[in-house]
């Protein structure tokens, strides 16, 4: 699997932001702890980090308390809301060409999920995956991706774009009936994969909006956006993303270096050039995880220590006091919701 891009455009947050505004939530709460300001999102081609996008989506999930939010937002997202990429897909020659272009330029819009597809004799199968560890957020991101795939398929091919089946790896949601309304096919929950299956025949459908000169112009613009995105990758952000953990596990420097296809020495040198130490990034990530549990859970200090990859509660408490100047218990007492 390809490494996810470390930067993405603020454009990808626009639909979610607008949707939440209509529900009465303002940017003060939506952008909490993201280090972003309203003006950042007003520029659709402002580059933001995936960590900032993740925190924004985490805020949305925690504020809304709506298990069907991701699917609804994805379903309501027009293909043109992807900017030049969406416009380029609309004026493509066929549905297959539009799908190929969407995949080739997916990093300009899709953040925090991995999307791939395969075509066989009978079907085109879209595979969607997400490595997010916070399950409500993971489901939100997957639902949004699935909803967008279906919405855009119908924009391109009309009623012909009816899936034969949808598989997801999570339990049936409270909005189960909405799945049936949107996908119009059997939906299977608690599977091992997340997929949408379509008949392969619809890929050959020619698009009414095909306009080759417009397509060529948009392709140049889209290429420039991809080039800018690639040039803006940052070693500190790459390490932060590589430190996204499984519960209770954090990779060490050697493991992160291997994931980033470089030697530990090279990784140390690149971080040093930015004035950053690997241990500081690791400690900061563990501290954030600890504070989330301290504020929002009833886990014991020992249990939180284990989630932060410490061997015992005493070592964790000493480390936390070194990071913040207070004990975990003191932090919990002052920040408990």
TrEMBL record:
InterPro entries according to UniProt: AraC-type_N, Homeodomain-like_sf, HTH_AraC, Tscrpt_reg_AraC-type_HTH
A GO CC annotation given for this chain: cytosol
Span of domain HTH araC/xylS-type: 233-334
Any Pfam family the entry gives: Arabinose_bd
Superkingdom of origin organism: Bacteria
Keywords: DNA-binding, Transcription, Transcription regulation
Molecular function, one GO term: DNA-binding transcription factor activity
PANTHER family according to UniProt: HTH-TYPE TRANSCRIPTIONAL REGULATOR GADX, HTH-TYPE TRANSCRIPTIONAL REGULATOR VQSM
Protein name: AraC family transcriptional regulator
Organism: Pseudohalioglobus lutimaris
